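On clarity, I found the account of how folds are encoded harder to follow than it need be. Since the whole study asks how a given chain folds, the encoding of that fold should be made plain. For illustration, here is how one protein appears when written out as sequence plus structure tokens:
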Amino acid sequence: MSKPKQLQAGLQDLAPNPHLNNKKTAPLNCLLEGRNCKKKVLLMRKETVPIDMSSEQKTILGFISKRQLIYIIAGGAVLYALIPIVFGLFPSYIVGAIACVIVSMPILIFVFVFGFIQKTKLHLHFDHYFLIKLGYKNQIGIWRKGRNPKDWMVNQ
């Protein structure tokens, strides 16, 4: 395949209407036709950017994010491993089913809270907020001033 045909195949989606002959489309048209152009042509892709860059994208079927899908899969795996064990502990099917519902409720609540609920004042999801709160305890300490330990030690 010759170079102009390769270029034409690669730029087919970016090409304007070849029947238009104005100053903006002329360099692109001559590139597609294989002629030499006097002007440099800069071709860039057009990407749509969401309005809010800090929020997570709902990529799975348009209504669930990857983070939420990970929580659902992890919670489902724990329930899948736990329910048969709990169901087998009880002799009656009814009592086993009730026990399974009781055992699964904390896991479902955990997945729902950490996966889907936000702390609206801070614009954070609860899992991120919880990690920040856990790290906060390590940030608290005694700030010292001076080079000698006797100047800043609390327990002397």
The two ends are 84 Å apart (CA to CA). Residues 73 and 111 are 10 Å apart (CA to CA).
